[in-house]
Write a structure and sequence with these properties.
By secondary structure, the chain is of the alpha/beta class. The chain has a single domain (3-101), classed as Aspartate Aminotransferase, domain 2, CATH 3.40.640. It contains 4 helices and 3 strands. The longest helix is centred in the N-terminal third of the chain and has 12 residues, at 3-14.
Length: 107
Amino acid sequence: MEEDQRAFILKLFENLDNNKILFAYGRNAIFSICKSLKIKKGDEILTPALDCDSTLTPFTVYDSSIVLYKSNPYTFNVDIDDLENKITKKTKLIHIINHFGFFSALE
């Protein structure tokens, strides 16, 4: 492990308290979020159309309705217009991811 990686991990653990939780896998964090938001059947989850199936599993376990929004195929940024048009009164969660380590440019 590189020294800067070691320093980052040590700093991360030094700052842990009862208000912070670490997850080994993103899908586990998503399960936790769904549980804390009390996601249930009929709740809409907006998620990017370009996503991997393992991150969609928590949404299907809670029997929510998955609504896919577009991302730019070249930059992977969220198509804000498409996302805004898909938000309804049933929308409970908007799932935004960073594709391939690139942050989504949101304004």
